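Sequence in, structure out.
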Amino acid sequence: MRIITTIILLGLFLTTNAQKTITYEKLKDELINSSEPEIISIYSNQLEQKNELYLIDLVKDGILSEPPLYNSETEKQLTTEIVTTSEVRKRIVDTLNANGFLDTLYLRTDTVYSNIKFPNDNFIIDKPLIVIEILHGYDSGIMQSYIKVDNKEQVDRLVEILSTDLKKKQQRVFEQFGENIKRL
């Protein structure tokens, strides 16, 4: 009897949650008003293909993560994590919003990223110069929202935004990332 009750309750729970629709307005509002984005990741598939620094994670202290990756042949760092405070990550999200980067948000399904406003606007990970992933609160849970950056002028502005609140050593990582993008 307990098994049947569990199955019925689970089915009811899944059906109730499956009917919720994610809207752009709610997603953007939750992203902006999230008390602290957990992680902000900046990724470039094109840099990964060239064995250059391709992933920067802005994380909070205490998050379990993988060690940085290095290219043993060129002795270059390929991934890095920067420990930041929740206030820094929140200011970054606010600055991204103020500069129009949150005007178009994407959600990911398998390998396809779809625009939340215009579902026919899709891309796969290897097309844009940079994809930014922001892990944040949404409806008492966690959501991953994505931003694509297509041109080098936007990358310059983005590097400036992301490095503003960071220490000099951390800023150099973003400057190197930006220089690598310029050489693509």
